[in-house]
Amino acid sequence: MGADIWTPPTVLLAVDLVILTLRDSRLQVLLVERGIDPHRGALALPGGFLSDVTEDIPSAAERELAEEAGLDAAGLHLEQLSVYGTPGRDPRGRVVSVAYLAIAPRLPEPVAGTDAANAWWTPTDVALADHTRLAFDHRQIIVDGIERARSKLESSALATAFCSPEFTITELQQVYEAVWDVTLDPRNFYRKVQSVDGFIVPAGPTRKTENGRPARLFRAGPHTVLHPPMTRPPRPADMARTPA
Amino acid sequence: MGADIWTPPTVLLAVDLVILTLRDSRLQVLLVERGIDPHRGALALPGGFLSDVTEDIPSAAERELAEEAGLDAAGLHLEQLSVYGTPGRDPRGRVVSVAYLAIAPRLPEPVAGTDAANAWWTPTDVALADHTRLAFDHRQIIVDGIERARSKLESSALATAFCSPEFTITELQQVYEAVWDVTLDPRNFYRKVQSVDGFIVPAGPTRKTENGRPARLFRAGPHTVLHPPMTRPPRPADMARTPA
DNA sequence: TGAATAGTGTCTTTCAGACAGTATTAG
DNA sequence: CTAATACTGTCTGAAAGACACTATTCA
């Protein structure tokens, strides 16, 4: 009702990355140690502000992926997760952060060769443990990212993003087991995953070796949505059994 | 590498609302006619800029819900959808919009009594028809909102948000049929929906009437995630049948 | 009574889960 | 040979889908 001309407020826009991968059969997330002062010394997700006012948000995510994690966005899964913009989440001002979820195949063991050499793969249970100091609201962002990954394994082909271009069915099973934190029957998994239309396709008559019978290789199939979905076993929440 | 001090760019932050409801057994979305000049006269989603730099983003969504749609945020489903921030999407500057998905029960037939009396419920197929002029990238936002609703009907109790606090199983079925654009067998739906633990609970020995046998009333149950999920029938994409 | 909607019983097919058994490699 | 992993066959129980049937209202 005032006579003054109202102008909308401006905010600082940032992107943050939840980068997940599988190492040592565990789900791990990439964390960096902050070198500057809001939360200096605490662990944080890779990320940063928009470089300039013309930069697209997905481009900013890809740039941070390269700068802070040394990963090439080409060929790795990257999707928008959510927005975090609570006033006061960053003491430098009104910062609104767009979080992205990235899935990296297991190959790039060393993350080095990057600006921020202080980046480590951290098992998710360690990253979320009570004693871990995480900057800003990054703990919540990690929780949301993991939950997104868990959920999308059911209905999409996201699991293949954790694997090399060619993979065995056992490797794919390890993805499901690590992300869902369950154990699955290899024989049922084998048939199930092959019965889902367009999920995986045979990759040549090739083979691989470890110390048993060689396994067939597969690639990601043409379909990204799974019909029928993979079903997540009920969590061992209440396994109380009434004796007969 | 320059010696100048770099400062991050600022953006304008907006919220946009995809408000869905069920009217005449059709899925409808609330659209407003724009009265000011970027896209003046075109249809748009209700929404607007952050009121001031201290306003929380969900609060802004609730405020716009009241101001532009005349709806009370209390007791209606509201969830963050996605972020839209392509440079150039708004000629007024770098505008980043946080889209929200709201689900309104069918009761409030008139949306009137609000600032913007130029708001109409529009069937989603009409809103997305080729001849409809939608402002900004709101067409894409609507598509994303509908897809989110379709998806969440499977695994969550979102369908109850389309209903009055007390509802019959047939009403709930109509929600699924309208949002998914399918027809379901009432008898199988009846048993299925009751077998899902915590989805719906009986609401007293009450009853309701129309022109047949009175139906039992239910309320939303305690669980918001459905185990097992409701399964969406395969779309009638390729129903080609090979004759025996 | 008949029309209309609500709710039940039951059959069949399909699929998840359990698990015995066969195949192919390395030593 | 044994150990180890990959893969196949088959059974069983639990649901999904189809659909005949009963129940309760209004006119």
Structural account:
The structure is a homodimer of 244-residue chains. By secondary structure, the first copy, chain A, is α+β, with helices and mostly antiparallel strands. Chain A folds into 2 domains: 12-151, Nucleoside Triphosphate Pyrophosphohydrolase, CATH 3.90.79; 156-241, Orthogonal Bundle (Arc Repressor Mutant, subunit A). Helix content of chain A is 23%, strand content 25%. Chain A contains 5 helices and 9 strands. Chain A has helices spanning 57-69, 124-127, 138-155, 169-180, 186-195, and strands at residues 10-23, 26-33, 43-44, 47-49, 77-84, 95-103, 119-123, 200-207, 216-220. In chain A, the strands form 2 sheets. In chain A, strands 1, 2, 3, 4, 5, 6 and 7 form a 7-stranded mixed beta sheet that branches. A two-stranded antiparallel sheet of chain A has the order 8-9. In chain A, β1 and β2 form a beta hairpin. The radius of gyration of chain A is 21 Å and the shape is elongated. In chain A, 34% of the residues are buried. Mean pLDDT of chain A is 90; it is low at 238-244. The interface between A and B is medium-sized, with 29 and 29 residues. β1 (10-23) of chain A pairs antiparallel with β1 (10-23) of chain B. Chain A binds a DNA duplex (27 and 27 nucleotides) through α5.
This entry's quaternary arrangement is homodimer
Q: Given the structure, what is the number of helices of chain A?
A: 5
CATH architecture level-2 label of the largest domain in chain A: Alpha-Beta Complex
Number of E-type strands of chain A: 9
Return the CATH topology of the largest domain in chain A.
Nucleoside Triphosphate Pyrophosphohydrolase
In whole angstroms, the N-to-C terminal distance of chain A is: 73 Å
List the helices and strands of chain A in order: EEEEHEEEHHHHEE
Low-confidence stretches of chain A: 238-244
CATH superfamily name of the largest domain in chain A?
Nucleoside Triphosphate Pyrophosphohydrolase
Shape of chain A: elongated
Helix content of chain A: 10-25%
Cα Rg of chain A: 21 Å
Highest CATH level, the class of the largest domain in chain A: Alpha Beta
Number of domains of chain A: 2
Content of β-strand of chain A: 25-35%
